[in-house]
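Note to self: user wants both folds in one dump. Writing first protein now.
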Amino acid sequence: MRKINSLTLEKIKSWEGFRGQTYDDATGDVILDAGDQVLGTLTIGYGHTGPDVKPGQRITEPQAAQLLLTDLQRFEKGVERAVSVPLTDNQFGALVSFAFNVGLGGRKPGDGFLTSTLLKKLNAGDYAAVPGELTKWNKTTIGKKKVVSDGLVNRRAAEVGLWATGSFVSSNTVPVSPSTPPVVTRETLSWGAGILGSLGSVFAGSGPIQYALAAVIVIGVAVGAYSFIQNRRNQ
């Protein structure tokens, strides 16, 4: 199974924020104790939710980090299975972060990543549509009403930034694709100038010895140049 890279993990931690005590995701920093009214979803640690989260609960940061890694596995698997086009590690990470935040869904259109227009357009090869689709998911539910959340607006913008960051890097499903070094460099130009200087000094004289030396140099240069260019192309 493909895993998110360390950059994505650190960004998700930053976006989720660590909370050592249960809070209501609809009211931000309001910590809940037993018996308090819940408007949104009970949350703890780095965005951990579920039936095991209770009002008044407390955990440590290492416990929260481990919960996050466990929680992310379902979303890593979901994104990997759902996306049929190649993704860079940062693109994959942005989608996992997005799915982790909005849910995988899968039953009715628009209720999560799996039924989103974003996924449909991406699998059709429309990579350019992803940033715009991400920014549409900026609302949260408070009291059964959808309202724009400044926090989600900022998170979507950050995920767009991660999506747009960088080139392909090595992963367990995306092979590394290094660029081919240029054949002509300052080094090769300097080398060629030295060779031409050597040939000039040889041809300055005349006679069979000079001609023989010139022939040896020309052959050596040809063989060396051929080997050098082949090595460059194979890198």
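First done. Writing the second protein, which came from a different request thread.
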Amino acid sequence: MDKGTLKSRRLAETPSGSGIRMLLSASEKAYRAYKRAYKPEADCSRPMQAALDCLKGELGSYEIIYDYLCGADTAKIEGKTTGYVLRSGDTVILDMAVGKDGLWCDTCRTFFAGSADNEKRAVYDILVRALAAGEKKLAAGTSGDEIFLAVRGVLKIGGHELLHHAGHAFGIKPAQEPDFTEGCAEKLARGMYVTLEPGIYTGNYGIRVENNYYIGNATENLFPFPLDIENYIL
């Protein structure tokens, strides 16, 4: 099947915006539930369970694929932390791909237990600026490579490397092509739903943020959940 046929099929299968928005609204409430449930020096499973319970309350039955990393585990990029007591200064990565009725969204936020030191605040600021640089490239006709280079460029100026893709399409699956990697020639088209997810991972911690967008005549941020770091201090 040639690329033109693949693109036509993908656009024909593009999910309704209302379904995606419902999933994103539930995800935002789950992040808020996580923050409310956090208690200093408590097992990390408690706030995570609160987030999952919130999703169930909002959506009923649902599917989820998630990374939940705490403390030094956040440097691993992917996985799940269990049986860990959250301590002041820890970072927490919560990345949730949530699905229902054949539709998916995919978002990520990083939380900071108790406080975020100057180093982590600087890293977080780089990621917010990288996200903004990627957003400027989100338009029909832009290649995955162009998006990747825009996001990675901000990280490199700050002395960091992008260790995974800069984002990807989603909708009928949690992750679809194009995958925003170096050398990806596939271009965005109107009707696509895409993510941006820059991350920085050091020797003992990691930070990642992820938003979702719709590519129309103009690009719409479907997850305008505030990025100000103060919203994520637990």
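Dump finished. Worth passing along: The chain has a mean pLDDT of 93.
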